[in-house]
Each structure stands twice: as structure tokens, then as C-alpha cells.
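User: Fold this; C-alpha cells only.

Assistant: Input:
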Amino acid sequence: MKFERVFSGTVALALCVALGAPAAWAAPAITSPREAFGHDIGDDYKLVNYTQLEAYFKTVAGQSDRMKLVEIGATEEGRREYMAIVSSPKNLADLDKYRDIARKLAKAEGIDEAEAQRLAAGGKAVIWIDGGLHATEVVAPQALIAGLHDMLTRDDPETMRILDDVIILFGQVNPDGMELVSNWYMRNADETKREFSSLPRLYQKYIGHDNNRDYYMSAMKETTNVNRIFFREWFPQIIYNHHQTAPGGTVVFMPPFRDPFNYNYDPLVMSTLSEVGSAMHSRLISEGKPGSTMRSGATYSTWNNGMERSVTYFHNAVGLLTEITGHPTPMTIPLIAKNQIARNDLPAPIAPQAWKFRQSIDYSLSMNRAVLDYASRNRERLLMNIWRMGNNSIERGRKDSWTITPKRIEALEAAAKDQPLVGTGRTRGLQPELYKTVLQDPAQRDARGYVIPADQADLPTAVKFLNALIKTGVDVKRATKPFTVAGKAYPAGSYVVKADQAYRPHVLDMFEPQDHPHDFAYPGGPPVPPYDSTGYTLALQMGVKFDRILDGFDGPFEPVADLMAPPPGRIVGSGKAGYLVSHEVNDSFILSNRLLKAGQGVYWLKSSTRAAGQSFGPGTLWIPATQANRAIVETAARELGLNAYALASKPAGASLKLKPVRVGLVDKYGGVMPSGWTRWLMEQYEFDYKVVYPQQLDAGALNKDFDVLIFTNGLLAAEDAEAQPGRQPKAEDIPAEFRPWLGEITAEKSAPQIAAFLKDGGTVLTIGSSTRLAEMVGAPVKNLLVGSDGKPLARTDFYIPGSLLKVSVDNSQPLAYGAPKTMEVYFDRSPAFAAGQGARAAWYPEGEVLRSGWALGQDKLAGASAIVETQVGRGKLFLVGPEVAQRAQSHAAFKFLFNGLLYGPASVRR
């Protein structure tokens, strides 16, 4: 999908020519930021909001022949998101040509080296520069305005060369957040009181800071817009994502990054990244701008795929992250002793000093210039390199290849343990044949492709997974008729993702488990915390059934052209009593909610049953047929891909009648990201809810408004966190409308009211750190991952940061209806519970439970409960240790959340 609303000064120029205007017609002067806003960008105590940025972009687009302004989509709050395309007038006249060259080279399919060289010689480097993703990091979006004006108005030789060689894409990637933060800061007439540390809500709707963790999932509209530009339309070779804040005692962190290095992407990505990073550091130093650090200067690594700059590595592009200091309220660079000595990772230390906002803007413009100058001077090489990496991926996907991971090195070392070394001195090493027998073990080959069968239980969720791949530019195919691969037959409509494509690194990273290296501060020392998740395999998180194909294969496959709806379901049979619908399909919850809102009956069968030649597990939906609900069922079948089996009589056995539920989703002032993600999920699956704040909890009488309360991860501090309340403003310092949001969940005021809610038949569903509520309300369930002193186990004994673990599931328990017998859940320093405490729906089996990521001391989980149901008075308390709503990615585990919302209230007799 392309957006063709274009604002351009070249249109005005063409019109003048058509009307016979003089050839010497002079374009109007470019409006300066001071003329537009009444102040310069970077002036103290001043921030421009998105409404002003949008108006300014439109104004200068109508004035400059160096710019076109393109609308790229809507935001979650409904604003329009724009991209400014800047280059020479000649290049702008041929944008379609240069975009097509960029696409051909990035996708590399059918392009040999000679053709690639021809295209690169005639192409232009495409560079993306953005700002504002994290809206409280205010330097970047303000610098975006200054950077655009800079490129539209300067006529020095460097600028003109860049405009000739480079097509620059300037994007504001969080319009809603910029509007919120700038308006909040500027609301105070007294400049010295201006701040944005007291924002009442997250700075991107639903997810806040996690907007930079959505880049392989593309759940949010803004992420989808940007990924479409990156991997489906413009294919930039360098993607520059500006952030802040810098490490203490420095001005800016810039690439290169510390290890670990993700083994899936092409090494040319990292070597080029180091080149660009060096050019950026050198530019600052040459301009007398000290204080740039790299690598060990901060914690940023290149392992995780979910961030804007890191998803690019898996698409053969150079992703840049910089973290700069700066604030519109004047600040200081502190004196940090270790950062006053020059070293490789901090070549030019900066003295402590007062610091102005404009200085940060100037640094940002210099960093932009460094990147653009590098792109101009290395135009053909950048274009050839993106082709070469894409071609490498295609070739690797067409033949036997091996990815060497930490586990394979462990296998090599184990195989070599009893064998003598060969060689002497520096040439001394392991037996060379071990390379072939271990590291190129035929059984450990990379997949040539993946088949996603059409007959899996939850095909609509598999289609959502494939759409996430398509949004990031991956080529997906569909079988037009039945076929057989590796001796297994697949039905028509099955999907195929082959590895012989340019974005093979991304394909592998989405299907295969991540094997994060053991990373310790020193031998025997504590683990070094990763920058983000270590295991996140999307196919596993979503519960997609797929087969790895190790040999080359083909079949009756056609390309999938764009995002897909699930294949339509159907009404099977002609019975008049009612319909059976599988509980295994997540979207069955949408159908249930539509029926309940329409006043129609929905039941869960408590036992397995067979009907119409099919087996149905516990929890299968029984929908008594009525004139009113047939249209609802038929629409859901058609739109959601659900099959409904029309029966002549209700299956035998007990059932649980569902009822409409009044859900309270707990949040706090400032917003808690897991609560925001859950809010988004509730809307996607059509659950009604109200947001509840601590003051309402403390007021009590909760049963009159709610049947269920959800406490997500992050609402209560985990045992390994400082048990301090979050920073909140004084009530008198914020607008009255936000004052009811203030407060914390406390043992003294909140817990007694939550306990009363439970005892009177309410349901409380807790996730992650919020399972500590069990202790607060007196439930007999405790986290076993703490010592006798109540403190977490030492990290040298137990440490699992953001990984996927295997659990066993009792899907005869209503909380686990529809889930498979074994599955993966997302564990991030999560709680676990002793066996025998409550009825467990899921638990960690004996043996190795790590499926993707990094785990130290996983034996401590053997037999521990992961998800538990316990009774408190007449109500139910659900303790969900893993993050079952993890960034809207863990679709396989959504059922534990959704089941809890419906099961708890349905089981209470009033």
C-alpha cells in the first residue's frame, strides 16, 4: 500500500513553466524555523510540537525544489505521518527510477554481479534519518526540523555533492508523542517550571518506550508505516535512529556497539557499521566537539531484532543508534572520573560544563552530516554491498549451509576433549576434521525453507505471523494445490517461506531459536545483563506449527502479494441445535465477545467430544442456535477464518455458561507498558474494559463495578527491584483531570480492598511481578525463586533474562482451555511457584526448559508451577508467572489471559 499525497515545490516550478513563466524564475526563500515558530531550534525552554512540525514541513515543501513531502500513513491516535524526501531537483524528478534501483539491489533476486554494478553506478544512496521515536528524548525531533532546513538552504560544495549523490528520507516516527511531550513541557508560562518528567500517560498510545521493540512484530500503525518504507518501498542502505540520553560524563554514544553479535546476519553489516561509526566520531572530533563514546561506553548491543536500528541488520542495511545528552532546560555535563581519561572507546573526553540545548542540536547536525558525507563518498559501494549481502543470503539459502552458534561451539569442544591438539605454537589447535564432522554435521544444517501447514489448529494466528513477516519485506508463498515435501503431504493453502531470499537473516531469526552466548563479567562472575530479550523466536511465541525443510524443494507455489486475511471458515453441517467452535483458535474469543454483547448464549464444554468426524478438546465453544446469532456466527466464520459445526443436538456432558464480564485493567499515573499492551490486546479481541487507578482500588466497593481485575507485570515491583514508589508529581502541579490517576498500589490501602473484592466473588488475574498480590491478600502461594531471606536467588545461581521456556500444560483446566500440552512462554526474571500450591494450569518440566535465549540455573525450575489458580473466599486469584501478553507477540499464551477473564466470573455462583 502506497500513500501518494505529495507536497512539492517542484510542482509549483512545473506550473510556472507550463504557464510560460520566465526561465530565470527564482524559487521563494525557504521559511526559517525562527520565522515559523518565533524562535530558533535549540533555544532554551522552547519545544516545537508535531502540529507545528507538520505545518512547517508542508510550508517548506511548497517552497523548495529540493524536497517532496509524502504521507506514509496514520498514527494510533489518527494523526498523519509524513516523510520528507530531500535530494537535488534532478534526482527528485527521477524518484521512481532510483527507488526501483534500490529495490532491485536490496532484493537481489535475478540480479547478477554485472547487472548489480550497472545499477549501482546509476543509482543513488538512500539514507533514512529520523527523530522522536521516544518522545521524551526531545533533541532528535527538534534536530529533525533543523536538519531539514539545513539541507534545503545550504549551497556549500559538500551539501551540493550530498544532494547529487544521496536521497535523504527524513521521518518523524512518533507524531502523537511529540505532540504530547511538547505541549506538556510548554504548558507552564514560567519557563523555569517547564518539564516533561511528570507526563500522565505513555508517550505513544498503548506502548510508550516499547515502540522501539515492535519492529519485527509491527503491531502498531507507526511501526507498520516505517517498516513499509524500509523493506517494501524505499530500501534505504543506512537507517539512522536518533535517541538520547548519553552515558554520564559524555555527550553522545555512537556505534560501534559491544558484543554479543547476532550470528544470523551478514558480517558485512557490522564491518560497514563500524566504518560509518568511525566517520561520525571523526567528524565530531575534527569539528572540536568532544565527548563521543562507543562500545563499552554503554550497554547497547546488536543481538535483539526488535528495535528500529537492529531490525535493519537482518535486512542487510546499516542501522545507526546514537544516544545524545540535552534538554531544553539548561543542564550540565557532570564530572565522571573514569570518563576523563582517553581510550579507544572514548577518544576525546569532555570537561564538565554547563550545557545548552542548542549544543545538542549542533552535535546532531554534525552526526547527520557525517553519515550523509559517508554515503555520498561511498554511494556505489553502499549500493553494491546491499546487493552483495542479499545475494549472499540467496546463495546460502540454495545450498547446504550451517550457522555456528554457541551450542555448536560447546559441541565442538566436547568432541575435542579427548583428542590431542595438532600443530605447535600459534598454529596449535583442534583436529581440523572436527570442523566438518561437528560444525558441518549434516543433521545441523540450516533449513532451506519452512512449510506452514494449512490444516493446523489455529491457522488465523499463523496468518498473523506471516503478515508480520510480510510487513518486514519477507517473501511468502502459498500452495495452490496439495504437495509433498520430504515425504510429508501438505494441503492446498499451506504457506511456504523459503530461505533463498535477500532477507534470509530475518527469516532464520523469526523461525529458529536464539542461542545467546554465556556472557559473564569474568570467569565465575555475575552475568552481564543483555540490552534486551535474549530469546524471542516469533514462530514459537505465536505457537505456529511449521516444518523445517533441510533439502531443496519446490511445488505449486504462488507469491503472496500483500497482507492477508485468514482463509474464510465455513459452517459445517446443517444441524439446528447449535454450533461447535474450537477453543484452540485465538480469534474464537472475538466470536464469544460478539455473542455475549448481543445477549446470546455461549458455553464451554468441560470434556472432550467428537462431532462431524472431528475431535474437540475441553473448552470447545457450544453456541445454542438462535435466529439472532446465526448472522454473527456466519460473519465470524467468513471474516475470522473460524469453522463452526452445526449440530442437531448439544454434545453430552457438563458445560460452563459464560457471561458478559466487566473488566478493570489496572494502570498507574504515567502509564505502565505491559498494561498498555494488554489494553491494545483487549481491543483487538473485542473485550470491553475500563482502566482502573490506585485511588479507585483504595476506595473499595469494587464488586459493584467489576467482575475481573487485571494486574499486569510492572504494576508492583519485583523482588529484585527497589521497592520504591514510582516518581509522581504533586496533585497541585498537574491539571485536575489527571489527579485521580495518582497513587500507588499498597499493602496498607489497596490490598484489603482487593481481598474484599476476591472474597465477594471477584476474579483477580495477576501477571509477572504483580503475582506478589498473592502474599498481600493472604493467598497460600509464594514465589520459590527467592531465598529464605526473601531476596531473589543470586544471579550467579539463577538468571533467565527475556527467554522462551518450555512448559507442560493441563488443558483440562479451564484456565488452559485450548492450549497445547506443551508450549513456549516468555520468561524474564519471572516468578515461579512451588508445586502443590493451588491448581496449576502450566508448569516447568524436569530437564532443560530453555527453548530460545539464555538461561543460567534452569534446573531450579524443575517441577515448579508457572500458572496457578487459587481460591480466595468466593473468588478466584490467578497467578501467571510468565509474561503471557509480551509486547503483543506471545499469541500462544494469550489464552491464559483471555480464559481467565471469562472463566473466573462464569464459575462464581451468586
